[in-house]
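Reopening this one. Same input as before:
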Amino acid sequence: MYGNIKSHEPDYILMTAIFALVIFGLIAVSSASVPISQEKFGEPYHYFRHQAIFGVFTGLIFWAIVQKIPYWIWKKFVFPALILTFLLLILVFIPGIGYGYGGAERWINLGIFSFQPAELCKLTFILYLAAWLEKKNESVRSFSEGFVPFITVIVFVSVLMILQPDIGTLGLIALVSLIIYFVAGAKLRYIGFLIVMGLAALLALIKIAPYRMNRLTVFLHPDVDPQGIGYQINQALLAIGSGGILGKGILKGTQTKLAFLPAKHSDFVFSVLGEQFGFVGAVVLLFLFYLLIKRILDISSSARTQYGSIVAMGIAGIIEFQVIINVAMTLGFAPITGIPLPFISAGGSSLITFWAMIGVLQNIHAQSE
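Same output, byte for byte:
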C-alpha cells in the first residue's frame, strides 16, 4: 500500500521554525557558557563549539538520513530499538562506561563526547508505543492485553530512570505516553489509576530526597533562603526582569557575562534569552515553538496511517511539554527540574535526538494525504 504514495515537498515552515530555534540556541549557548567554559577548560567557547559540532552538525547528519527512511519501516525495528535503549540505560551504571555528574549517573562516556540514553528513549519509546497501539487496536481497552503490557513497560523504564536519577525525563515520557494511551482508546479508570499511582510515586521520591523537597519548598515559597536553596530561581527571575521590553542586546547583560546563574547555558537558558532579547524576543521564541508544534500536529492529522499519526502526536507532546515545563520552571511557575529547552539548551544528546525526530516527521509529511 505504501509503494504508490507520491511524496510531497519538504515542510518549509516546519524547517524554518527549527533553524530559527537552533540559531537562538547557538547565540544563547555562546554567550551564556563563556564563564564556565573559561573556568573548566581554559578557553571561552568550549560549550559553543561542542553544541555546534556534536549537536547541530551531527544532528543535521541524522536528520538527513532519517528523513529518507520510510517511517513505517521503523515498526519492524521498534522492539529491538527499545531493548537497545534499555541496555544503554543500564550501561550508565557500569564503571568505566557510565559517566556521572552532580550525583546523577546519566551519561555513557564515548571518549570525545558523552551520550545520554534517556534522550534517545524519548524517541524509541514513542516509536514502540505507536507500533504497539496500532497493532492492539480495539484490544487496547482490555485489561490483560492493553493495560498490563502498557504498565509493565512504563514500570521498567521508570525503574531505570529513577536509579539514575532522571525524574524530569521520566515524568515527561510518562505524561506523553499516558496521553497517547488515552487518545488510542484506553479506559478512563485505567488512566485514573495510573495518574494516582504516578502522583503517589512522585510524592515518595520527593520525600526520600532532600534536594527534591528543597525544590518543592522553593516553588511553594519563592522568597525562602534567597542565598541558598532559592538562589537559582531568584537569579533566573533577575535575568529575565532585567531584560525589559527589548533586552540588553546579544552577548550583553550581567547574567550573560558573569557566573551568577548556575546552569544558564542548559536548564536556565530561557533566562539568558530573556535578558538579551527582552520580552519581545521571548515572545518571538515562544511563537516559533507554537508554530513548530502546530505544524507537527498538522502532520499528525494528515498522516496516512494510524502509526504515523501517533508518532507525530507523541513527538509534538514531547516538544510541547518540554517547552512548558522549562519555561514555567524558569518563571517560577513550576518546581526546578533538569528538563532542557528543545533545540536551545546546551546538550548534544538532546539536540541529536530532536533532529532525528524532525527527520521522522519530515518523512511522515512526505507520505501524507
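So the earlier flakiness isn't reproducible anymore. For the record, Confidence is low (pLDDT under 50) at residues 1-5.
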